[in-house]
Design brief:
2 copies of one chain form a homodimer.
Chain A (H helix, E strand, L loop, with lengths): L6 H12 L6 H11 L7 H11 L5 H13 L4 E2 L9 E2 L5 E6 L5 E5 L2 H9 L6 E12 L10
The structure holds a DNA duplex (30 and 30 nucleotides).
Amino acid sequence: MAHTTTHHSDDLAQRLADSGLRNTPQRELVYQSILARRDHPTAEEIFARVKAEMPTISLATVYNCLETLIECRLVRAVHFERASTRYCPNLVPHAHFHDSKTGVTHDIDLPEELLAALKKLLPEGYTADMIDITYHGRGAEKPEKLKD
Amino acid sequence: MAHTTTHHSDDLAQRLADSGLRNTPQRELVYQSILARRDHPTAEEIFARVKAEMPTISLATVYNCLETLIECRLVRAVHFERASTRYCPNLVPHAHFHDSKTGVTHDIDLPEELLAALKKLLPEGYTADMIDITYHGRGAEKPEKLKD
DNA sequence: CAAAAACTTAGAATCATTCTAAGAAGAGGG
DNA sequence: CCCTCTTCTTAGAATGATTCTAAGTTTTTG
């Protein structure tokens, strides 16, 4: 089996096939444009990069391709919870659990030592004013008496 | 010093005064409406609740009051990073550090044991598909060679 | 090749949020 | 009290990211 330098493209083709999806030039290009740099581009930025190679591509297609790549687990979306901002009077440091089935969010208390451990992961000279932690998952089948 | 049941209102008045801001019926009402329940309402939901008491209040005012409350550290915004979603090809579990000075985001590796510790905080029966961790703060004064 | 299915496209639509410009309300000084 | 300055509130317009729609293309399969 000959290995080429297009290793990641093979990944893409494989993953798409696994999901019963087609490999298209647009998907390939969007994927490559994300892999090309170790940054965190927005859809608009990706659109700009990709347009240089394929001037006819549309922004909608870029969004579509990104969604496909996320489905195939080749790319992660960073702030993907794009619903409305929510406001919270609980000022004790805590995390949020977002139930993807019900849409309900509730608070999870954070022990001091965990926060300390998280802060230790930062490189020298970096300081965190706050750490935003959100779990995404499912609650218990038999719902607890926790509220939104 | 006589303590009343309007403890939280006093908090508000105090905090506003500390920041050189006025205490208004709108700010009071928005604050009370968040304290009233232990949930995570959106601006629209707060608007709806508050409108019942003060039908002339506007959505813009609700947004303004919320911003004021956040300034005074009486309320937290949950998904406040409302810029564009960013996409990231790094599939190893990692956190993000968001530099509020430069707007730059970079990856922070997460040790397995820390993830395990986070998962242990969940109540019985809760499972997390993913945990989104974002630090907000400032990088080193002498910038490292880390990229966006 | 024909028909169905999967994709792409441009532009309209949506939704949360912010901006703008004008009007009200409170604080202080005379 | 009245004036003026500053702070707030308001309605509606504007913005910006994303999604939807409807039509056109490409691919696949029979």
